Amino acid sequence: MDKRRILILGGTTEARELAHRLGARDDLDVTLSLAGRTIDPAPQPVPIRTGGFGGAEGLADYLATNRVDLLIDATHPFARQISANAERAAEHSATPLIRLERTGWQPVEGDRWTPVATVNDAVAALGAEPRRVFLAIGRQEAHHFNAAPQHHYLVRSVDPVDPPLTAPSVEYLLARGPFSVEGEIAVLRGHQIDVVVSKNSGGEATYAKIAAARALGLPVLMVDRARNGRVSTAETVEEALRLIDHVASGGRKRGV
Ligand code: NAP
Fold first, then answer.
1. DSSP for residue 5
2. What is the pLDDT of residue 123?
């Protein structure tokens, strides 16, 4: 019997975990797709393919050429382009699509969050007075803060920010999560940070900075997610596994 082919769009802990669970099944042929942004990505439990597809059309071609039976979009909640492409490509190629997206963090007592819609809104919300800012939003969007050069920035990312920021007062910290609350408190104290900028990524690996800000009474500019209500979405790996079986039992797209 031919195995059912699954393509997981990844780049997240959940994608890796899902790949691990699905890869262990002998009725499935699972490939994980990475954008190729991280120079030294973590080892993955199934075969990977790396790099962009060439937009929604390119992805649709890939799905057809490789006779993919199910597309799983398990990319990061803030990787909006690839998710939009996945939706269009799935539609064009009539491939079932499931989204795996962890829930966002919710504020709890003691949190001092200011929600903002975009990273650019976070730049504006820092205000005119110079502040010491912890930028924990990844390296791709850090350059937006060049527009507010009066602040001091501590930028943390897995790989170096390239090109570096043009703002005059910037420190870089290379580190890969998960992070501990004690470690994050030490970072915030050590660099005399007075405001944290974060995306509402959800998940545990990067939550410690939020808990650390709360412990120190620091404000957080929290970049919200854009909503996408059209795709069947699981919030956890377990839920995704159930959805996948549900889609599988609903009939196969191709006669395998
Ligand atoms: P994005 O803006 O949504 O995507 C930009 C382009 O990168 C896509 O159009 C696609 O190129 C390619 N791409 C993205 N993810 C891909 C994947 N899994 N496999 C193959 N190609 C992919 O994405 P991003 O925000 O730059 O994120 C890139 C990757 O990092 C994603 O896999 C995401 O899960 C991960 N990540 C992102 C964040 C974040 O905050 N944005 C945080 C942690 C991890 P083509 O159009 O050529 O196909």
1. E
2. 98
Q: What is the CATH number of the domain that holds 155?
A: 3.40.50.2000
**Closest residue CA from atom 45 of ligand 1:** 52
pLDDT-based confidence at residue 39 (cuts at 50, 70, 90): confident
Which pTM does this prediction carry? 0.88
Evaluate if residue 66 carries a pLDDT over 60: yes
Residue nearest to atom 11 of ligand 1 (CA): 52
Its sign, for the CA torsion 13, 17, 18, 23, is positive
pLDDT of residue 42: 80
Ligand 1 within 6 A of 56 CB? Answer: no
Mean pLDDT of 137-145: 95
- Is residue 184 within 8 Å of residue 154, measured between CB atoms? no
| Residue 50 Cβ contacting ligand 1 at under 6 Å | no
Cβ of residue 31 lying under 6 Å from some atom of ligand 1 = no
Provide the domain limits for residue 192: 113-223
CA of 35 to the centre of ligand 1 (A): 5
- Specify whether 202 is located in the same domain as 140: yes
| Cβ–Cβ < 8 Å for 234, 98 | yes
Q: CB burial class (10 A; 0-12, 13-18, 19+) of residue 37?
A: middle
Contact by Cβ (8 Å): 167, 153: yes
Q: Is the predicted pLDDT of residue 250 greater than 80, yes or no?
A: no
Query: How many domains, the chain?
Result: 2
pLDDT for res 253: 46
Torsional class of 22: left (φ above 0), alpha (ψ -120 to 50), beta (otherwise): alpha
Mean pLDDT of 170-196: 97
Q: Would the CB of 55 count as within 6 Å of ligand 1?
A: yes
What is the pLDDT at residue 136? 94
